[in-house]
Amino acid sequence: MNFSTRLRELREENNLTQETIASLLNLTKANISKYELGKLQPSIETLKLLSNYFNVSIDYLIGITNIKKTEDNDFSKIPIFEINKSTPAIFVAENIAGYDYINKSEDLSKDYFFFKVKDDSMSNARIFKNDLVCIYKQDYIEDNKLMLIHIKNIGVLLRRIIKCKDNLIILPENHKYNPVVLSKKNLAEDYLKVIGKAVYVKFYIDE
Fold first, then answer.
1. How far is C-alpha 40 from the geometric centre of its chain's CA atoms?
2. How many structural domains is the chain composed of?
3. What DSSP designation does 60 have?
């Protein structure tokens, strides 16, 4: 479930038109339409307005949870990491491109960060250059999921990982980029380091 679907469902559940929501929240109908089509992502301020209006949590709005309301709806600031060179040390100060907010408690927010996409290798998954991908830190692979990884001699990549017998297939979502296949021997030699799992995307809007 994603934000566009959640917003449409909440609007229809409450028998509201796009015009009504736009008027109530001082937004434009065009923006509401773009939200529901997945062509535009809301700002933190808009998420707060929608959360308060529909009486649901931000996590519910953006599809992280199916629980509509939580007690604590505060935001925590987490870093945005942008990789400018191939390095296994992603979590270093010089890679911090700024900060954004996540609807998590201060303790839980330490398990998350944003990764700034640097190319169009995941474009068919609707992830483009300069988009921010929220990453949950974990050191193991989940099959057929978008993972942030480091591959020896290649660098940090956001890719879909497919388990195939003793091999791992590292798939881009753009045919212009080549997949990488890692053998059991590669894995034994620590060619791959798992950094985390993609949770959701904040789309870059060129003002």
1. 14
2. 2
3. H
